[in-house]
């Protein structure tokens, strides 16, 4: 019953929203529309062109890249950059490390963030408000300020230069808890109450009743965690030093500052940067609709 | 629900409520703490404790060896802070330079990214549905890529004979050697009209070891490339925020303004923009906080060069601690940076606070009744 009224309202809403545009369109002349589209197309080219140049250059030879940086078609196609990356460097190790960290961090955040978010939204316990206030306070601390402090603690705990030191500190994020809490507060309690009356324990209610309903919010957490941990740099700089534990961000950054190469070697660097963009790009295109909606949801509050 | 103050009602109802509540909520206290424990422990150990530890380090002479709490580490009071803020030495000068660089960066990036993202949102919002998705994707895509990958790309685009300079050459402009050019943009502009050295009033006076004339140098050409990069990578995210807000507005008020004869420009400034204020606040806050934390780009791209003109407080804090082993100073810089960010957020919140009716806006509406009704005949 609620769904039907909701659907009615949405239909009514879109109808009301589209009517003004339909009425305005004749007044907005074709000239105005074409100017609008011309600007949009120029801007889109500016935004997309760098990435096209990046991919094209990664298939060029060093000399070609230096001589014809703008051309989108390599003079001579060469996969030398990719061969060197995969056969002649630590790149595969970096990739594996990034993948490992990303998987663990994403899983950890999905589980712990939703667990805590549920507790803060639904469970009545003394100190809940204190926990929530502390969470908001923690969210406001700028991450860069924590570089030195994080190293101090990781070092003190004996986790420096280990997977534990790389993964554990990222395993939870305050913003994720916040998102989950907000989501759980937005869904009706009736289903849970029913399950509780049927005698399910708190964790059981959370795991088999509430969590499946939270799919949209969980996807948001997955996207944010994946992107966040895959693109994370500063934490790995202060948490590790050995080459076996280098992640993509740290490795490619060292490539960029020329530590491993002589000359400019732009095809190599751009190939590395391109490959490192692929996983987030794939993630982006799979969940595109969700990403756009997620940030819309964030604003409505 | 289990609050001790009894709700005004019959005793029976209260009792029934309570039994129902306790019956259902019996395990809540234990479960609540259990569920939040991982988050509390991890955030506590890796966020709260580190901040306190760093606070101690910023007041100590710890040199990076052993534990900062061991017996041979001494409390040195505000020594680290005074070395940075009034030491007269290299530490103070470096901090001054870093602060200047970052201040110009903030001054340029925050308005540019806000204006561009709003502009993009308005354009995309106007586009007929079919093209909307494509443009939105195109503008948002740079935001999902990592700062390292974008910096690598930027180093290539802005190299001496790179794409940007080739494009500039095509329209007859000789582009600078971007990432190797330490000259300040404002100084360069003044140089064009023949001013190459500042008045002694500016060159003699200094703040944090940097002369006022050098404070006014503007961002270096190298930093300008980072400014463009920041605008490029963040405008998409903020565009989405504005776009969502625009779509939530609905057309009725705008239509009313249109009926009143407001032209497109007036409608945007007087009707749409004031209603976007919450989003504007979010975007400005996020922009400010982000801009004071420039680190990844500098670490990947320039390491503070050329001539320290891309040094930022965040990067300086890192190098002071990890490269120079001046842990106390590094931590002190981090805390000063924290205070700067907090101060800016508060100032901006104060400026954008909700006022009943601002004098300026009231003035804009008042004369209409008395003055000639230019086009607004009602």
TrEMBL record, chain A:
Gene source species: Labedella phragmitis
Protein location: Cell membrane
Stated name of the protein: Carbohydrate ABC transporter permease
Principal subcellular localisation of the protein: membrane
Taxonomic lineage from the root: Bacteria, Bacillati, Actinomycetota, Actinomycetes, Micrococcales
Chain ranges of the ABC transmembrane type-1 domain: 95-287
A biological process term (GO) from this entry: transmembrane transport
Assigned protein family: Belongs to the binding-protein-dependent transport system permease family.
Segments for region (Disordered): 1-25
Tagged with keyword Transport: yes
Record InterPro entries: MetI-like, MetI-like_sf
Highest taxon, organism lineage: Bacteria
Membrane protein topology class: Multi-pass membrane protein
Entry keyword set: Cell membrane, Membrane, Transmembrane, Transmembrane helix, Transport
One Gene Ontology cellular component annotation held by this UniProt entry: plasma membrane
TrEMBL record, chain B:
Membrane topology field: Multi-pass membrane protein
InterPro entries: ABC_transporter_permease, MetI-like, MetI-like_sf
Membrane-crossing residue ranges in chain numbering: 33-59, 103-125, 137-157, 221-246, 276-295, 331-352
UniProt entry keywords in alphabetical sequence: Cell membrane, Membrane, Transmembrane, Transmembrane helix, Transport
GO CC term (a single one): plasma membrane
GO BP term, example: transmembrane transport
Subcellular localization: Cell membrane
Pfam families tied to this protein: BPD_transp_1
Region (Disordered): 1-21
Domain ABC transmembrane type-1: residue ranges: 99-348
UniProt record similarity statement: Belongs to the binding-protein-dependent transport system permease family.
Protein known as: Sugar ABC transporter permease
Organism: Labedella phragmitis
């Amino acid at each position: 019953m609620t769904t039907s009224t909701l659907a009615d309202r949405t239909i009514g809403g879109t109808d009301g929203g589209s009517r003004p545009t339909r009425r305005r369109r004749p007044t907005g002349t074709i000239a105005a529309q074409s100017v609008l589209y011309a600007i949009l197309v120029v801007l889109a080219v500016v935004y997309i062109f760098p990435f096209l140049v990046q991919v094209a250059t990664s298939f060029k030879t060093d000399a070609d890249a230096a001589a014809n940086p703008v051309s989108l078609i390599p003079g001579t196609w060469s996969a030398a950059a990719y061969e060197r990356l995969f056969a002649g460097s630590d790149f595969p190790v970096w990739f594996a490390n990034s993948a490992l960290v990303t998987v663990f961090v994403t899983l950890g955040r999905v589980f712990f963030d939703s667990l805590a978010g549920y507790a803060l939204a639904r469970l009545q316990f003394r100190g809940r408000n204190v926990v929530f206030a502390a969470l908001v306070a923690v969210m406001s601390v700028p991450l860069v300020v924590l570089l030195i402090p994080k190293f101090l603690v990781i070092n003190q705990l004996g986790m420096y230069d280990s997977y534990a030191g790389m993964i554990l500190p990222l395993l939870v994020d305050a913003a994720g808890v916040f998102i989950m809490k907000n989501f759980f507060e937005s869904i009706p309690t009736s289903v849970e109450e029913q399950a509780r009356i049927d005698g399910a324990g708190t964790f059981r209610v959370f795991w088999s009743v509430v969590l499946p309903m939270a799919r949209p919010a969980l996807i948001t957490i997955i996207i944010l965690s994946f992107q966040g941990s895959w693109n994370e740099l500063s934490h790995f700089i202060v948490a590790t030093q050995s080459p076996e534990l280098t992640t993509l961000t740290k490795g490619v950054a060292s490539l960029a500052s020329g530590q491993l190469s002589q000359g400019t070697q732009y095809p190599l660097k751009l190939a590395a940067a391109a490959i490192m963009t692929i996983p987030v790009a794939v993630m982006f295109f799979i969940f595109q609709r969700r990403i756009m909606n997620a940030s819309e949801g964030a604003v409505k509050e | 629900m289990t609050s001790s103050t009894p709700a005004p009602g019959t005793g029976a109802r209260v009792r029934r409520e309570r039994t129902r509540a306790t019956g259902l909520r019996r395990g809540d206290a234990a479960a609540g703490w259990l569920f939040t424990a991982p988050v509390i422990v991890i955030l506590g150990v890796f966020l709260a404790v580190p901040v306190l530890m760093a606070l101690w380090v910023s007041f100590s002479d710890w040199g990076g060896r052993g534990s900062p709490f061991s017996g041979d580490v001494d409390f040195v009071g505000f020594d680290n802070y005074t070395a940075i803020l009034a030491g007269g030495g290299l530490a103070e000068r470096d901090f001054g330079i870093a602060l200047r660089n970052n201040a110009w960066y903030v001054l340029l990036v925050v308005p540019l990214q806000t204006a561009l993202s709003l502009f993009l949102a308005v354009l995309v919002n106007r586009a007929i549905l079919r093209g909307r998705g494509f443009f939105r994707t195109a503008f948002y895509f740079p935001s999902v890529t990592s700062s390292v990958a974008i910096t690598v790309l930027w180093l290539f685009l802005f190299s001496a004979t790179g794409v940007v300079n080739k494009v500039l050459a095509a329209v007859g402009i000789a582009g600078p050697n971007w990432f190797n050019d330490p000259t300040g943009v404002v100084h360069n502009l003044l140089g064009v009209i023949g001013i190459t050295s500042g008045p002694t009033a500016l060159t003699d006076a200094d703040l944090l070891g940097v002369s006022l004339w050098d404070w006014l140098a503007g961002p270096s050409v190298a930093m300008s490339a980072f400014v463009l990069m920041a605008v490029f990578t963040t405008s998409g995210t903020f565009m989405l925020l504005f776009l969502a807000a625009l779509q939530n507005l609905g057309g009725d008020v705008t239509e009313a303004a249109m009926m009143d004869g407001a032209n497109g420009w007036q409608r945007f400034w007087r009707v749409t923009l004031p209603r976007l204020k919450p989003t504007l606040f979010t975007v400005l806050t996020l922009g400010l906080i982000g801009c004071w934390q420039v680190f990844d780009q500098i670490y990947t791209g320039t390491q503070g060069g050329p001539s320290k003109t891309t040094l930022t407080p965040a990067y300086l804090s890192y190098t002071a601690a990890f490269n120079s082993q001046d842990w106390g100073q590094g931590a002190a810089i981090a805390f000063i940076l924290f205070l700067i960010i907090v101060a800016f957020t508060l100032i901006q919140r104060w400026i954008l606070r909700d006022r009943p009716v601002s004098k300026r806006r009231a003035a804009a509406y008042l004369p209409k009744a008395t003055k000639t009704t230019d086009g607004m005949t009602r």
